[in-house]
Design brief:
Blueprint (H helix, E strand, L loop, with lengths): L2 H13 L38 E2 L3 E5 L7 E8 L16 E9 L2 E8 L3 H9 L27 E5 L2 E5 L7 E3 L6 E4 L15 E2 L6 E6 L6 E6 L5 E6 L12 E2 L3 E6 L2 E3 L1 H7 L4 E3 L5 E7 L8 E5 L3 E11 L2 E9 L14 H7 L4 E8 L5 E5 L5 E5 L11 E7 L2 H4 L6 E8 L5 E5 L4 E2 L5 E3 L12 E9 L4 E8 L9 E4 L10 E5 H5 L2
Antiparallel strand pairs: 1-5, 2-32, 3-4, 3-33, 4-5, 6-7, 7-8, 8-9, 10-11, 11-12, 12-13, 14-15, 15-18, 16-17, 18-19, 20-21, 21-22, 22-23, 24-25, 25-26, 26-27, 28-30, 29-30, 30-31, 31-32
Keywords: Dioxygenase, Iron, Metal-binding, Oxidoreductase
InterPro entries: Carotenoid_Oase
GO biological process, one term: carotene catabolic process
Amino acid sequence: MNSLEQAIALEVAEKCTIIRDKDGNPAPDAPSWTQEIDNPYLHGVYAPICEEVQADELEVVEGEVPADLYGAYLRNGPNAVYKPRFNYHAFDGDGMLHMINFKDGKASYRNRWIQTDAKVKEAEEDKAIWPGVMGPFDFSLPGFPIKDTSNTDVMYYNGHIMSLWYNAGIPYKLDMETLDTQGREDLNGGLKRALSAHSKVDLENGELVFFDYSDDYPYYTYGIADKDGNVIHEAGVALPGPRLPHDIGVTPNYVIVHDCPFFHDVDLLEKTSKRVMTFHRDVPTRFGVQPRYGKGDEVTWFECEPCYILHVTNCWEEGDWVIQVGCRSTNPMPKADPSEGELSHMLAYMRLEANLYVWKFNMKTGEVIEHDIDTLNSEFNRSNPLYMGYKTRYSFNQYIMTRKDDGVGTLAFGAMLKYDVENGDLERWDYGEGVFGSEAPYCPAKGATRHDPEDQGYLVTIVTDSNDWTSYCLVFDARDVAQGPVCKLKLPQRVPGGFHANWVRGEDLYGE
């Protein structure tokens, strides 16, 4: 770094409210251009890295790798390559996958960028081309008017990895062994437009339940593809206007559509080229319970207290009732801090406020029962995937840190949580001061089925320690989260903060 770059870095560091190490230093392995930008989501644990690396056997720091932990942990997240043209949003970085494979009591690691169409085009031009979530939307650009980064969700489907974008974009296929991008996933030509993050794979029959939304009537579509990637069902569900639903509920007989009063004004988007989200506190949240293979007009709507819901833990049926457990936010757009300037609304939105909640819908009487399970600030909630659509007792969440915790107020995970949704009991293990976690999917033990105990498995997460910029993989016994990790593995490089993670069973990978 030359003297001018050092001066710029010092000026930015003095202005930025960012996560630094114990000596006050930012992450040392980030691209140099990040030092020119005052944005906490480009610094500290969020700073992008520059390398794709591979480690065939990870160092075990504590404990040992469980012999029946069998499969692969995948985590997606933003990792920007080029200096952005406009204001950078936490959602904007190019998608990068991190994979940790577990087999025979050993673990390996590799990471790769997702080679989206937009990333490939920008590599050809050697610069950023697309604007990000904060706009301005440019409808003259190919594909989307903002950059489709495929940086949000990740899942295993039909023999390969599929990466997804939260904004309903192009799904990409990646090789399960190398993480190399194989191109677009078009469901054997059956995908008509886009596919949103948080589509679901049903492990019982291999089906993919997916959804899409847009600014055009009927505004929402869901579909089902079979285990071989063929679309076997699709239906449009009419909403009152454009919405940005983030998740979908699935049971053996139903899908649950989310119509939340947190949406944008299309006319304002056209006039300003900015998508301005507003939470309409006087409008109820609606959940539409739709027959899984039904027509879009067969949906039964239930009105609930106004809220926004990001992630569903699980849904199931009990007699005439359809149950949905998830995390809800009654304040999805907290008040912005004017002192944070142009980034204030983005920073406010990323200060996620949510808690574990249950909704119950009676399909005969139309009755709704809804209430808190707990009020602790938590999200990125997961359950045993073998139980998807069937009653589950446990929700495994991340504690969402607040300004009171870290003094920063960026989205950060501070603890692993295990909830008993029947009685609200909570187990907790804190990652430690200056240590920040990742989403932790439930990982069934080798050979497990839905008829085995629900928590007879593991939780896997990646943590980054801002005290020295090292990253580790932690493995928890799901039966006893409070005891802390049973295994700690050192990763070969820092892993930036990211979004969603998933587990791929070894039985699906290796056929054993």
